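Comment thread on ticket #2218

A.B. wrote:
> Attaching the input chain for the structure job we discussed in standup.
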Amino acid sequence: MPGLDGRRRKPSHLRIVDGNRGKRAAPKKEPKPTRGIPATPSHVKADELAHAEWARLVTITNAPRTGVLTLADGPMLEATVLAYSTFRQAFAALTKGLTYKCATKSGGVMYRQRPEVFIAADAWRRYITGLTHFWLSPAARGKVATIADDEEKDPAAEFLD
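C.D. wrote:
> Ran it. Output below, let me know if you need it in another format.
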């Protein structure tokens, strides 16, 4: 059922940074996707708003000190930028106002909310949810520790070298 999934699981590396208060063992075979920039889908390139937002988010999430973007993040990034594009298009359509007039069967006048209001609200919710997955909201950012330039190297790899 939607909404009954519970709290989102915290990534293992964040549990380690926070001190693993629950004392649960870390997963032994957790996948570690390769850091990098996923390929831009052709339909995102065709949408001017989505493509500009893709470039902006890639710049932020692939920065050396942030480094949260991986090659596996393409679908989440795609959903996020398409939600942003939908929001901007719906919001632009709202320049006519938030309501419109329509006639009732009895000849009266009724004001209804434009469908774009619901579309914009839903797209904004999806966009914000996508941003939190990339730690781009103020609340999520407070839970992440940045990696210093000298700490980026894997200690095991340094030992073997």
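A.B. wrote:
> Thanks. Noting for the ticket: The mean pLDDT is 83.
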